[in-house]
Write the structure tokens for this entry.
Amino acid sequence: MQDLYLLAVAQKTVGYVVAVLLLIAFVVAIAVNVRKGRAEVGSEVELAANRKPYMDDEELETKKLDRTLGLGLVALGVIALTLPLYWLAEPGRQEGMVERFEEVAISRGEDIYVNGAQCAGCHGPQGIGGVASYTILDPVTGAYVDQVEWKSPALDTIMYRYTPEQVTYILNYGRGYSPMPAWGAPGGGPLTEQQIEEVIAYLTSIQLPAAESQLAVQKELDKTCAADADNNCTIPGGMYKTLGEAVFNLGYTDGFAGGAYSCGRCHTAGWSIGQAKVAGGGGMGPNLTGGAAIRQFPVAAQQEAYVSAYPKMGTAYGVNGWSSGRMGSFGTNPNAQDPKTAIMNPDQVMLTPVQIAAVVAYERSL
Ligand code: HEC
Ligand code: HEC
């Protein structure tokens, strides 16, 4: 890509050289003409162009004609050779432009992330996840309730689970009753549509390689659960009984990735501030207890499919669910579907099929 950009620059230089040469030729032509003109002063009568005897027919139809035709042929040859060459380089020039455009968008997006909107203050440098200090006020009276540290999910896997449109929606409107404010004009925020696009370009550029994120999840699971062959946790005195429970709560105790890989942060009230209430009892996401998941998905495989590839906003799911576009896909990357437009690799996913099956089994037991 860098090469294409250099190629475009090199071509620009050649263009400038040609332009300068033409300019010099033009100036020389004018100078010669002026000189010629001077010699004629006072002798217009004999030397006036229309008074000079012209070539005779003989010469006009042979030498002169051949010369003119020859020149025409040479000019045609030059055009025939250079025009295709020019076209040949056109895709490179265009790619160079797009590449340059993206680089600019990414660096502007980074500036907004770090300085302008200070996303980094909550979501961590390079989107590794963090915490937001937040004062909870009573939504009705506005009275002080509590001062908390609210987990802010890592954003270096955000394109693993949401499409750019979904991220745009989150940025436009923020997350009500959480520290995440609305950033876009539609939600009353300070950023323009273009700035939102630039932030997303930056976020896309910092997505983790698949191996790195999967290794991090595995390390975290080994620390909190160390599942045996039956997916039961084997850490002596550990908090979790099963792999599914550990996945559901990934990062609850130590803030791993700001809880980005967990389910509890949306499905358990108080999870994000370390005051988890009933597991799966509902928060921003619906209550999953009392067999709610089984009623929605009679067969576990249906629920696994839902959690893996979260349905598009406005599409039906389960027995009578309707996707609001807010949850995100945990086992299939929605940005790796069409190879032509894919911006991610298919292996960049939050959880493995085994981890998804385990967490679904856990939810069905709630
Ligand atoms: C004051 C702290 C704060 C700031 C500043 C902030 N965020 Fe957030 N953001 C949060 C919190 C907390 C959440 C999780 C809310 C929840 O619990 O549902 C969140 C959620 C998100 C999500 C959804 C992630 C997910 O997986 O659910 C995205 C995307 C996001 N923020 C992007 C940004 C961007 C981009 C910026 C800068 C323009 C930004 N945030 C600025 C605190 C913040
Ligand atoms: C960013 C918040 C968020 C996260 C994280 C999240 N969910 Fe959800 N989930 C939702 C929302 C919101 C819904 C309701 C459906 C909708 O709005 O489209 C939902 C719906 C569901 C449902 C369907 C429940 C029903 O009754 O319709 C299941 C099952 C589910 N989630 C499982 C999970 C699992 C498993 C994980 C973790 C791997 C998870 N969710 C992570 C927000 C989230």
Notes: The longest strand covers residues 144-152.
